[in-house]
Task: structure prediction
Amino acid sequence: MKYTLDTIPVLDAYKADCECPLCKLRILCEDQYLDTMLSSAYMEPEWRIKSNETGFCTRHFELMFDRRNRLGLALMTHTHMIEVIKSLEKILGEGDSGKRGLFARKSAEDGAPAKIRARMEGCVICEQVDSAMERYAYTIAQLYFTNAEFKQLFASSKGFCLPHLALVLEMAEKTLSGAQMPEFKKAVAALELENLKRIEGEIEWFTLKFDYRNDGKPWGNSQDAPDRAINKLMGACVGAEAEMPAHND
Ligand SMILES: [Zn+2]
Ligand SMILES: [Zn+2]
Result:
């Protein structure tokens, strides 16, 4: 697969000083795709066919629900539901010949519960966000060797959340040369471990601040340490780093 560089957004995210620049980019992407989906894409046949078939994950249904275009969301949900009902008629209607017992029993993957779960997997917005994130992770690995400004920003950055750490290493593995990969991996590992230990110290101080003997001592950088620790482990999901940009829809 051929990837394209996306230099400007990556440089901007690195200039923002955050725990994970890829989380910053992910949230901007989500915001943009949610807007597109609710403002115009749902009326375009190509997108509507995709959303009818695939639907949305819980997070993206929730985020669309929070925005104002309830009619757009209702239209998409309605036609997706029609497709889901068609699938369910098949899943719930098939294969019950009345036979019971050891030999008639199907394997777990063939059963209705597994098929219902599989039918509800997937999300049109996740698909787009995931492919943008692969492009950004690819860009990070490439810029490290080709862009002096980026290399400097990278060195003073705070590493990645763990899901994005895995993604960056995966994309680097796929696209860097055999000679580049060990150097990149070493730089990423040093940055990541240093920053994981920093947050571990910050969240420890947060817990120690609850000891009355530490009452008068300064919080330092620890007041939002639980938020940042959770985000570092899981990708931005709580606190200020997980907030969507303000919009006036
Ligand atoms: Zn991240
Ligand atoms: Zn999703």
Remarks:
- Residues 20, 22-23, 160-161, 164, 235 surround zinc ion (ligand 1) (CB under 6 Å).
